[in-house]
Every structure is written in C-alpha cells, then in structure tokens.
Design goal:
The structure is a homodimer of 330-residue chains. Helix content of chain A is 40%, strand content 16%. With 330 residues, chain A is of the alpha/beta class. A 6-stranded parallel β-sheet of chain A has the order 1-6-5-4-2-3, with helices on one face. In chain A, strands 7-8-9-10-12-11 form a 6-stranded mixed β-sheet. In chain A, strand 9 and strand 10 form a beta hairpin.
Chain lengths: 330, 330
C-alpha cells in the first residue's frame, strides 16, 4: 500500500534526499522524459547528484534535452519515478527493474496509478506530469525555472496534450504554458521540432497509411495499418509513427480510430483513439492494455486478421454498450 | 490618416455607439468571424443593436457560432472592422464596400494595417484579434465573458495560432486561453470541430496532395499542387484545404512550403509558409500578395507551369537574400 502525498511532502522528501535516480517509462514520450530531465536539472541546481534511467533510448527529436543519464557512477539512495503508472511500464532493459522495487516516490498524472512506490503524488486532473512540476519545482522545491528547465517541462506539457488540443487540456495547462514561456522556453523552436517537422520517410508512411485506410461499424470505426515490411520500407522511426495514431479518429463520423503497427516480433501494437462518450481505455484493457479515456493501447500477437478481429470485437462491444447507456430504457 | 487609439478609447466609443455594424474580411477565417461574433454578442449584451456583415459565406465548421447577420433592418450608425488589414481584404459581395469607407473603428493585430478607418486599435504582438477582445470585452467594455462569447473568442485564438503552435503564440495567448476556458468555452468540443475533424473528401485530397509533392532548391522548398479537377473530384471544401497548406513546410529540411490551389477562374492561389529566418510575406508581396512573416499568400493567373515558375523565382531570391545576409562578408 502506497502513501499518498501532496506536492509539499514530495518536495520536502526530494530536498532531504541525495544520489537521486529518476526513472522514466519504457518507449519514452515527451512527458516522461521532459519531466525526468526537468526534475533532474532542478535537483542538480540544489547541488544534488541526480541522473535519469530509462529502459529504452529516447526518440531523436528530443535530442535538445540536456539529459544526465545514469551511468552507475553513484549508488542511488533515493529513487523517483515520473509518469509511470505501473511496474510493467518501466520496461526490462538497462537494469531498470533493479530499482523499481525500491522506488521511494512516484509523481504521476494517471488516475490508474498502481501505487507501487513507497509514496505517490498523483494528480489525475493534470494534463501532464510536467504541468505538476511547473509549479512544484519553483514553488515547493524552491528552484527557479531556468530556460533549460522550462524547455524540458514545455516538452511534456505540449506533447502530452497534442499541443493543447486534447480534452485533458485545462485552464491550468494553459497557465503553466504561459509560465514556462515567461521562464524562457523557446516555444517557436520547440513547436517546430515537436509538431512541425516530419521526415520524408514519415510523409511516405503517411501516404501508405492513407492507402490502408478502412472503415468499419458503419463508418464509426476507421483503421489504418502498417505491416513491418511497410515500416521498414519507408524507413520511418517508431516515434514518428506515434503521431499517425490520431489520423483515423480525426475523420468525420469516426468515434473509434485504430492504428495497427506490426512489431519486430510480428505482434501488432494497436493504438485506440476515441471521441467523447467512448472509452478507449475500456477497449484496450479488455485486451490486456490500458491508458486514458480517449487514448489507449494494447498489443495483440498473431496474424493481422486475428488482430483485426480481436480489436474490432471490443470496439463493437464498446459502441453498443455506450449506445445502450445513451438511450433511455423503456 | 487614422487616429491610433488604445483599448479604453476603443471601448468608450463602442459604449457610446448604437446600431453597430461589424465587418469581417473576405474568405472569413476563425479570427475574423470569431472576433466579429464575440464583439456582436457583447454589444447586444449592452442592449445595443449590432450585426455582422461579411463578403463571403463562412465555412461550415463555424456553424456553432451564434452569428447575427446584418439584414438591412437598421441603418448602421457606427461601423467597426475586425481583423481586416486593408480595404481590398473586405471583398466585394453583400454590399460590404458601401460601409468600408465610413469605418469608425478598426480592431486588428496586423502590424501592416493600412489605417483606412477613422480610428484604429492595432496590437501587432497579439496572436489574434480574439486575444485582444478576451480582455477588452470584460475589462474595458464591461461585459462579462459568457460561455457563448468565450467560444467565439477561443475560436479565433485557437485557429489563428494553429492551436498554439505558431510562433505568434505568447504567454499572453495562453493566459487568454485559460481565461476563456474559465469563462466556459467548451474547448473539448471546439478543438474536436476545429482541429480533429476531417471529412473523407479532405482525407482524399490529402492523399492527392502527397502524390503531387515535389522538392525544389535542393530540398529547401517543397510544393504540393491541386488542380481544379482534383479539388472537384475529391469534393473537398476550400476551407478544408486551408489546413493542407502547412504540410509542405513541415517536411524536414524544408524552409519554404508552397501550396498551389487552382481557383474556379483557372488562376492559382498560392500559400507560402516559411521556417524562421525566411520571410513568407516578402515572397508573396513581390507577386501582389501579402500576409505575415511565416504565412503569406498570393494569386497568379496563367497556367500551372507559369505559376510554378513565377513563385519559385521569388522563393529562390528570398533564400539567396537571406543566406547572403546570414553569411559574414569577406
């Protein structure tokens, strides 16, 4: 059973600690890596030894982040996980699992956080962990936001909200963005890197995806699919494909958008995106995955037909369940 | 010569006026129509007669805006233009030009505003006219932001900044977004309408555009082109094509992105988008167009080859000019 803590308690424990190891989730995104790096820089500004550890390499686009990677040069005395909802999400590489079981603190914005750490700060209404840290670092930890820290936190805030498009975006999210800009985050450059730069191979993958587009459930479900061969042929990076997952849901009349990407082991990674009133997490959870209400994911082994059949079955169930709830009973 | 006024003076004149006609620019976008409608609702809340007039119909996606169209039922005693930088931009339909010459007030965020109105409030640092009105309406005009007014103003704020992506976005832009959310703007619904809904025909046009993609100037210029036939075949609305204009510039290594759309009269409407350090407006202006530093446009008559040749010549000049400036002279 984890101890639920508030911001000040979390900050007080971080201030009392040293030799701090910060853990990100596997297949790192902008929020886990932005919050880890921002927190690391803030702790270093307090004169502490701190470093970041992640199971997987970070996408190339985040190269501008000034990350101190953990290289084994100190024995971690305090372990803090950021944006990691459950133990499985840490991954298996780089000996990450050696440290997971002794996580002293977890800072997260997933309401589904499993409470695996000794103490947990969860704010489910926050659009990103970086949104929490934009106040926690200066107001509770007492470290002024430098342009460098602001760039880290803007990275997570902007990527986790699809640049302030997703429903998770609140007035507080925008207010934190304003604060980061005032602290010196160069959002012109960051937005160009994060949202306005697509490689030629990504463009090629987009064309392939558009050609694979299929409609199901009377047009209420759209699916794009990229096989391993197609992914390799276009040369597109996995991280670049992430953006494509919003495409099928964005089509008029589509309530559930599915993106199937074949993994190196042949299994299919499925991204589920839903419009309001439909629960992406419920669909993904029934296939062993998870996530948020509008964006979730799961993996299905087996061939493409099996994967399609399995996910479409769950989509149909969710559409039927919600429609039944929406209609008054007679 | 126009009189330059501040927010309070503009608000005082609006408070003193009645029978107010609000003018938008032709081919209306989210900012001109959002600010016109928001201002109209605010003036009506003060008990005034007010209505909106625009040369062209508004794109279908803005149907949720509660617009009081001018129907000739009152004789305008005060004319205010919003987001219209010059007289030509008013258009020629709906007798708009009858009122332009007696514009009492213009509220704009284009530094290039021609000063055609009797009094002008220009704030070039504002990302949108709606950003100005988010403070002007409650703080100067004294009308509380209703959820309805907030939805109008969010529409302009979000669309003119590409949902807070463009370099025009500032801390103030985000702070105004926060204020509009708190005033009741349903951004979940609005963002879905404005940014996450693409018709099947738009998707079809996107595929056509990707197939037309060409690179010039050693990959520093990318061009997509849709002929009139292609546009008609896909059935895509002109307004939907607007979004596509950001595609070519978004490709890695591309400094100038061009989108050519053939108009009903055979001429080509060219949208110019540039990365930092290159001036889209300079390119468009030399062909009789105009706009902002990163986003501008012009029209060229003649066949496709002529249009391509003319615009590429100006692109090459701009690339060469900037590169010469960037390199120190020996």
């Amino acid at each position: 059973m984890t101890e639920s803590v508030d911001r000040q308690t979390a900050a007080t424990r971080l201030r009392a600690a040293d030799d701090i190891l910060i853990l990100s989730h596997k297949n790192p995104d902008g929020d886990t890596i932005g919050s880890a790096t921002g927190l690391c820089l803030a702790l270093q500004a307090l004169g502490k030894t701190a470093a970041v550890l992640c199971s997987d390499p970070i996408p190339k686009m985040y190269n501008y982040l000034d990350i101190t990677w953990y290289d084994g040069s100190f024995e971690p005395a305090f372990v803090v996980a950021v944006d990691v909802a459950s133990i499985q999400l840490f991954g298996e590489n780089n000996n990450v699992q050696d440290y997971v079981r002794r996580a002293n603190l977890c800072i997260d914005h997933h309401g589904s956080n499993a409470g695996y750490a000794y103490a947990t700060l969860v704010e489910p209404q926050a659009a990103a962990v970086c949104e929490i840290l934009t106040e926690l670092i200066p107001d509770n930890l007492g470290v002024p936001l430098t342009p460098q820290i602001a760039a880290c936190l803007y990275t997570g805030l902007a990527t986790d909200t699809g640049c302030f498009r997703f429903t998770s975006t609140t007035a507080q999210t925008h207010r934190m963005a304003a604060r980061l800009i005032e602290a010196g985050a160069d959002i012109g450059r960051l937005n160009e890197i994060l949202f306005e730069c697509r490689s030629r191979s990504r463009i090629e993958a987009e064309r392939e995806a558009l050609e694979s587009l299929e409609y199901y459930c009377g047009g209420r479900c759209a699916m794009i699919c990229l096989t391993r061969d197609q992914i390799l042929q276009t040369g597109v990076a996995n991280a670049e494909l992430e953006d494509l997952t919003s495409l099928p849901r964005s089509i008029e009349g589509v309530d559930v958008g599915l993106t199937l990407r074949q993994q190196p082991d042949g299994s299919f990674k499925i991204s589920v995106r839903t419009s309001r009133s439909y629960d992406a997490c419920a669909i993904a959870r029934r296939l062993g995955g998870g996530g948020h209400a509008r964006a979730a994911g799961c993996e299905i082994s087996g061939n493409l037909d099996n994967a399609k059949r399995a996910i479409l079955q769950e989509v149909e169930k969710e559409l039927a369940r919600q429609d039944a709830e929406a209609e008054p009973r007679h």
